[in-house]
Amino acid sequence: MEIAAYKYLNVALNKKDALVLYYQLTTYIRENDPACFSRLMEQNDGKLEDNTLMQLVLDCMQKQHPQVLKQAIEPYTEAA
């Protein structure tokens, strides 16, 4: 997940922070974007690698909710 975060966002995260960000964004999508959440669940067959899951979540956030994504990664960019 941390690799996908770096590739998509140019933000270096450790494994724990990447997982926290993934769950934070997935929760946001589940609660606020049912269509995107449905697409994520359709693609998640249980065999996808963590980085692929993170890429799917980041792709949805970048396309549909860029401002929320910016706010979510802000604490990690300030710490750098």
Write up this protein.
The protein has one domain. It is mostly helical and 80 residues long. Helix content is 81%, strand content 0%. The longest helix has 18 residues, at 15-32. Helix 1 packs parallel to helix 4, helix 2 (15-32) packs across helix 3 (34-43) and helix 2 packs antiparallel against helix 5.
How many helices in DSSP terms?
Answer: 5
Strand content: under 5%
Q: Biggest sheet: strands, sense, closure? A: none
Determine the N-to-C terminus distance.
18 Å
Oligomer: single chain
Low-confidence stretches: none
Core attributes:
mainly alpha; 81% helix; 80 residues; single chain; 5 helices
Secondary-structure topology with pairs:
Layout: H1 2-9, H2 15-32, H3 34-43, H4 50-64, H5 66-79
Brief summary of the model shown:
The protein is mostly helical and 80 residues long. It has one domain.
